[in-house]
Amino acid sequence: MGRLLVEQVVTADGYAADPDGGIDFFEALVRPGADGEVDFNDAEQLAYVAQADAILFGATTYRMFADYWPGVDPEVERVAETIDRLPKFVVSNTLTAAPWGDRQIEVLPGDGVDAASMLTQRFATVIVWGSLTLTDALFGAGLVDELHLRVVPVLLGSGRSFTPVEVGDGALGLGHVEARPGGVLSLRYLVR
To answer: Which of 14, 26, 43, 63 is the most exposed place for a label (fewest CB within 10 A)?
Structure first.
């Protein structure tokens, strides 16, 4: 059985989305010319993504990625080549098609936990980015093997946590810590 990795961008006070469900706090950090601009093109992030054999999205995160990544210049965003070539899947009971540039990615209807389990039977390493509703279910089912947090230097005060309340008191094993450009802290935890 393959490994399931969840990666979340979170504020210093632990929020993955603002109170309205948006990620304006993150988008402001990566905007060209922003003060203290965050650069996610560093070697640590590229190596992390390179270990993936497939990408799994929830429908909302898929829409954000599909609006941005297919047209990105790999000379500017070096991780774009890896994202583009990896098999991608979206869990959704509402989408009938999932365009990715001039291609389609596979829509997996039904239960997200079942879809993730199926993918870990097919692939050695599956990464889930964002996709808070999906990752809630994956944490609840005990399917997450590794949690990668990119903590950005922002305080929101309120919003949506990156884990469900029901996740409980699970202990994590620290796998890696690295300070990154723009004041970002990269943390990897082993979940099980």
So the answer is: 43
